[in-house]
Amino acid sequence: MAQTTLKQKLGTTAAAAASVVLCAAFLLPVAWMVATSLKSTSEIFAIPPTWSFEPTLEHYQRFAGQARIVSRYINTIIIAIGSSALSVIVGSMCGYALARLRLRGAGVIATLILVSRAIPPIALVVPMYLVFRPLGLLDKHITLIITYTSFLIPYVVWLSRGFFIALPTALEDAALVDGCSRLGAYFRIILPTALPGLAATMIFCIILAWNELLFALILTNREAVTIPVSLAGLAADTEQGALWGPLTAIGTLTVLPIIVFALFVQKYLVTGLAAGATSGATN
Question: Does residue 279 surpass a pLDDT of 60?
Fold first, then answer.
């Protein structure tokens, strides 16, 4: 018994140490970025690197206060929330159909929908550009919302199907007996019950849409530009070299909101996604 307890303690200690090491490895680049954004230009390029410095907000004041950065923040919020909401609405209905309707090979269909995300985005961006250009939809919010929805829906379908399978069929059977249609039972009974899982799915979609770069870079140029595109522009070399101060400042302003958001909702995100993914994989 004592030997078993000792092994358990050693296992727990090793797991905790590994977790600390992994967290440090992931957080170190973020901490370095934040520290660099608070250094003066001379301190950024100091060799060896300076660990003790007086923080300055010159890089934030120079770039983050500009109207274009504010408008790009607004663009990113509109596009991320809009595409996530649309994908959850459409994808959850598809997931419900695959979970409840008597469709032969529903599990295979759900898997194929998810596998469609294996297509490299670079293979899709040019066809999408050629579709949107004749329609005059380039550099518009709706363009990126539709585009992001197209690659978020497979995740929503897979996860929501797991949520719906986990729900007892007695709920909607009772609604159908009381005179509800299949659609009425979905909106009145199933959707409110599965709301926590769908909320977690939407959180996951917002995080993915917030960080997307390739489609935003190709399909926008001025009015609908997002924050990741701004970062890509600042990363380009200038005559003085890369603008590391402004780059890390805007990078910090880009990353911190989504980190704070993820920390705030992590309880719902982890619980909901774990339940949906496990149910979807076992059914």
Answer: no
